[in-house]
Design goal:
One of its GO terms (cellular component) is cell envelope. Keywords: Hydrolase, Membrane, Metal-binding, Metalloprotease, Protease, Transmembrane, Transmembrane helix, Zinc. Its cofactor is Zn(2+). This is Murein DD-endopeptidase MepM/ murein hydrolase activator NlpD. It is found in: Cell envelope. This protein has 412 residues and is α+β, with helices and mostly antiparallel strands. It folds into three domains: 98 residues, Nuclear Transport Factor 2, Chain: A (Roll); 96 residues, Roll (Nuclear Transport Factor 2, Chain: A), CATH 3.10.450; 118 residues, Distorted Sandwich (Glucose Permease (Domain IIA)), CATH 2.70.70.10. Strands 13, 16, 17, 18, 19, 20, 21, 22, 23 and 24 form a ten-stranded antiparallel β-sheet that branches. A hairpin with a 2-residue loop joins strand 11 and strand 12. The longest helix has 37 residues.
Length: 412
């Protein structure tokens, strides 16, 4: 009996000691066991880097720009693509992409097999910063057009003008597309050729990005422009399915006449009853405004109307005269050429290009001589009083005011 009890005690003691040794061993050996287990554990594989829907890491990628004078056959020929294959691409591209529209300066990428064959697998041409076309030369040739994802970022920016709107925007590192957009929004309110030093503006807008690169401005939601001591507001709001710009009181910014017939330029000579003519060297009235601009700059009619003269004269050179409503007449002189479709009797719309800046007739350099008559009398184009379009309807005014107040907070 004593022997059995002794054996039982020994068994318990051995079991306890074994457990302790196992516990200590596990603690000491655990890191090594863990490292050993890691060798067999399934590790997460990072997803492949994709561009244009192509796994970039699987190919050697050659990035370049289309050289002037190069056609598709020459470009693809450098990668071993035959003329017969290019002919097949013509068929495959029908209804998708016109191969003749490939232009110099656009970016393209060749995806080449990373083996001894150096075979071209894909060739990508960027149509725009957003849209691209992929030519596949894998198992069978194919062509498809797609778009990169565009990221929209809401921004609020402000700056002060020291010389010109363009320079101010560029110096402030804003997207330069804002210059054109703002000039179009305020085309009826502000003469951008007469901006003054220390004029300023603040703008709420959406900027578009592709691959972290800005590609332009999607929309301006609101802006405030301080010009010559006066404040001009602009708020985007939709009425009758048309997105237009309105001032803080719901009045349309659009008016019967634009402030100027050019988008960007500078005034070199103003309205005068007595000016020394630069060619004739005599004093005579100058019933217009001279805008200096490069030859070929588009000239727009400031208002809708009917063309009553188109032709050439010794002093005015190529010039156009347009009759508008309410007995207004405008003329555009020294044009290099006329726009297509513009003829005597044709109706033109506000902002339509009617010709291009030149130096024809009595002229010492490229410029536009722009004149306005009302009731047969010449008037200063910079002082034309233009009636606005219809304001927001009453049923839209409350919603507009709420939108305006939200934007006002951002413009403070």
């Amino acid at each position: 009996m004593k022997f059995k009890i002794l054996c039982s005690k020994r068994a318990v003691l051995v079991a306890a000691l074994s457990f302790v040794v196992l516990l200590i061993g596990s603690f000491i050996l655990w890191p090594s066991l863990q490292r050993f287990a890691d060798l067999f554990r399934n590790k997460e594989v990072p997803p492949p880097v994709m561009e244009y829907g192509i796994p970039v890491d699987s190919f050697n990628v050659v990035t370049s720009e289309i050289a002037p004078g190069k056609n598709l056959s020459e470009i693809l020929g450098e990668h071993g693509i035959s003329a017969a294959q290019v002919d097949s691409l013509l068929t495959l591209s029908k209804g998708k992409f016109d191969l003749r529209s490939i232009r110099a300066g656009h970016r393209c990428k060749a995806f080449v097999q990373p083996d001894s064959t150096q075979r071209l697998a894909y060739w990508v041409y960027e149509i725009t910063p957003v849209q691209y076309v992929v030519f596949s030369f894998k198992d069978s040739m194919s062509v498809h057009v797609a778009e990169k994802p565009v990221r929209i970022v809401r921004k609020v920016s402000r700056t002060t003008i020291k010389s010109s709107l363009w320079n101010a925007i560029e110096k402030a590192k804003m997207n330069t597309a804002l210059a054109l957009d703002l000039s179009e929004i305020y085309a009826w309110e502000i003469d951008f050729f007469g901006l003054q030093q220390n004029d300023s503006f603040k703008v709420v807008y959406d900027e578009m990005f592709v691959d972290s690169v800005s590609i332009g401005v999607a929309k301006i939601h609101a802006a405030v422009f301080n010009h010559m001591g006066k404040t001009y507001y602009a708020f985007s709001y939709m009425q009758d399915s048309v997105d237009s710009y309105w001032n803080e009181n719901g009045q349309s910014l659009k008016k019967a006449f634009l402030k100027a017939p050019l988008k960007f330029s500078r005034i070199t000579s103003g309205f005068s009853r007595s000016r020394l003519h630069p060619v004739l060297k005599i004093f005579r009235p100058h019933y217009g405004i001279d805008y200096s601009a490069p030859v070929g700059t588009p000239v727009m009619t400031i208002g809708s109307g009917v063309v009553i003269h188109k032709g050439y004269s010794g002093s005015a050179g190529n010039w156009i005269k347009i009759k508008h409503a309410a007995s207004f007449i405008t003329s555009y002189m020294h044009l290099s050429r006329f726009a297509r479709g513009v003829s005597v009797g044709s109706r033109v719309q506000q902002g339509q290009v009617i010709g291009y800046v030149g130096s024809t007739g009595y002229s010492t350099g490229a410029h536009l001589d722009f004149r306005v008559w009302n009731g047969g009398k010449p008037i200063n184009p910079l002082k034309v009083q233009s009636p606005p379009e219809k304001p927001l309807r009453k049923e839209n005014l409350e919603a507009f005011m709420k939108h305006r107040n939200r934007m006002m907070q951002l413009l403070k």
